[in-house]
Design a protein that fits this description.
38% of the residues lie in helices and 15% in strands. It has 276 residues and is an alpha/beta fold. Bound molecules: NADP nicotinamide-adenine-dinucleotide phosphate. NADP nicotinamide-adenine-dinucleotide phosphate binds next to helix 9.
């Protein structure tokens, strides 16, 4: 089996395929439908979307049309960051599951601890309230695993203290040159699995000469090196592409980055999004 199709285990026993297909900024309609279908055709078994991406209907149609058995595909969607009341969260969850046209969701996440227009705002109580909706549908079997995204250790502590079920996943931005070390350490210690979003720095890290130099050593692209780096860190990268050749390339990760090169890549500390 190719590395990208292997799975990690969440603490509740659910298996999550190592590489997920990201769908942020893929337009609803043909673009999202074709990209997801292309990914599934090329062996991806893990799709990441969100109500906020506006493409769940197209993603769901592609999943159904792929004819792959439902239980073989791992589907993640997310509760919009702006929603912080129980009632609105329940409506949003039902909207997502209907949009996708699926009987259950594999992983449902709170998209962020604060609305995107108010990053850093204290929504502790709202997060506890909306998380109760995740717990309700998890217990009903409509969600196989629940979690959070963009949560700091304090945000997660608040959930653990005031809710019943510990999150299984935290999805955070993580790529060569950028990571939240305190959050990663906290999640590892608490058996909360890390998914790495923007594993290619939304494309920006691909023009970095230092990364390219290491990629050349292994005869792979910078994108492949960046994804393999995250696999060796034990997390699940979620690369996005609308081009078939790149969708395929991002699955070819069966090589090993040597320890010395891993250390070198870890030492690249700039946020590639600020490189220019
Ligand atoms: P990304 O996967 O880091 O990078 C995507 C960019 O890289 C696109 O411009 C893509 O171009 C290009 N690309 C992909 N593969 C390539 C390759 N092999 N060679 C050259 N260029 C390549 O971007 P992202 O969308 O920021 O992050 C990935 C996923 O993470 C999202 O789609 C979403 O599912 C998730 N995410 C979650 C959050 C959150 O708050 N939870 C936030 C951001 C992202 P083309 O598409 O033109 O090929």
């Amino acid at each position: 089996m190719k590395e990208f199709q292997k799975t990690y285990n969440l603490y509740n026993g659910v298996k999550i395929p190592k590489v997920g297909f990201g769908t942020w900024q893929i337009k609803s309609g043909d673009e999202a439908y074709n990209s997801v279908l292309t990914a599934l055709k090329n062996g991806y078994k893990h799709i990441d979307t969100a109500l906020a991406y506006g493409n769940e209907k197209s993603v769901g149609r592609a999943i159904r049309d792929s004819k792959i058995k439902r239980e073989e595909i791992f589907v993640t969607t997310k509760l919009p960051a702006e929603i912080k009341t129980y009632q609105e969260a329940e409506i949003a969850f039902i909207e997502s599951i209907n949009n996708l046209g699926l009987d259950y969701i594999d992983l449902y996440l709170i998209h962020a601890p604060w609305p995107w227009s108010e990053i850093g705002k204290d929504c502790s109580n709202g997060n506890v309230q909306v998380y109760k909706v995740l717990e309700k549908y998890y217990k009903l079997g409509k969600i196989k695993a629940i979690g959070v995204s963009n949560f700091s250790p304090n945000d997660i502590e608040n959930i653990i203290k005031n809710n019943k079920i510990k999150p299984m996943v935290n999805q955070i931005d993580y790529f060569i040159g950028f990571s939240h070390e305190d959050t990663i350490k906290y999640c590892k210690e608490n058996d909360i699995f890390i998914e790495a979003y923007s594993p290619l720095g939304t494309g920006y890290l691909l023009s970095n000469a230092d990364i390219k130099k290491i990629a050349d050593k292994y005869n792979v692209s910078s994108a492949q090196l960046a994804l393999r780096y995250l696999l060796q860190k034990g997390v699940a990268p979620l690369p996005k592409s609308t081009h078939e050749e790149r969708i395929i390339q991002n699955t070819q990760l069966d090589f090993e980055i040597k320890e010395a090169d891993m250390h070198y890549l870890e030492s690249i500390k700039n946020d590639p999004r600020k490189w220019g």
